[in-house]
Amino acid sequence: MPILGVNIEKITASKDSPVKGKIEIKHNVKITDLQEAKIEISQDKQALRFFFDYQVDYEPKIGIISLSGDVLYVDETKKIKDMLAEWKKGKKIGQELATHVINTILTKCTIKALSLSQEVNLPPHLPLPKASTKTNTKNYIG
After folding, report:
1. Which of 9, 45, 46, 123 is a plausible cystine mate for 77, CB 3.0–4.6 Å?
2. Cα separation of 92 and 41, whole Å?
3. Using CA atoms, how far apart are residues 57 and 60, in angstroms rounded to an integer?
4. 3-state secondary structure of 103
5. pTM of the predicted structure, to 2 decimals
6. Each residue of 65-84: pLDDT tens digit?
7. What's the first-to-final CA gap in the chain, in angstroms?
8. Domain limits, the chain
9. 29 with 102: CB under 8 angstroms?
């Protein structure tokens, strides 16, 4: 399942109120549309665009980070036609493909959202590694 790339077309990051007290951070990824991409690859291959919205909400109404874009995917022409037909019929795609596409979106957008959270002074939306002092040095060999 070759993914050629992830294109981010819209970025929004805002801090609406000061960060205080307990906050809840919610993530959401949604595939919003599928469209055939007009890219010439080969006679037996075709491209497809998976449009998506990625969002990180800081509750209660502290801020939001939102990214929108598309994932460019290539496969055999017959498979692409079948995917488009299934999407048009019920807005569904195969679970294995959906997992692959969503993981690609998460990889790209989570890193971008982390950078954006620093820019607007929101806390990181995922745990970062931290150094700590070791208090028990009795059995230390180094």
Report:
1. 46
2. 25
3. 9
4. helix
5. 0.84
6. 999 999 999 989 899 899 99
7. 47
8. 3-119
9. yes
